[in-house]
Amino acid sequence: MQNNQGAATQEQSINQENKPETRPCILCQTFYGTAATQFYCSKCYQSIRKESNVEQTQQQQQIVQEKKQQDEIVKLKEDPSKCKICKKKLGISGIQCKCEAYFCNRHRLPEEHQCTFDHAEKAKQQLIKNNPLVDHKKLEQL
Known about the structure:
- This protein has 4 helices and 4 strands, in the order αββαββαα.
- By secondary structure, it is mainly α.
- The longest helix is centred in the middle third of the chain and has 35 residues, at 42-76.
- The protein starts with a helix and ends with a helix.
């Protein structure tokens, strides 16, 4: 009998050693959690996992958007050896517009390639810079 009791106590001590440590839930303090659930109860642990999944998907979407923007930048820098409109080979006769694209002789004018650069505004700014206003006081002194 003593052997049976000794074996039973050994099994109980082994079972107690193998049991995971449990603590009250960090958030709700109502239920118990284990180290596997970072000491959250199952309800709190699931809600935290859902929140982290939402954050991860948002981060992944931001990364995808950044990659798309980088791809768009690369697409904007097209091959300078071809006309942007007709894709004709330019060789040494290629003309670069102020919108930073290359065109053939036929499409070199802003009206021909729907230029995005505002030539009129640039000309106005240049006139203002080069032709300062004359004060009437200076004219009286002469």
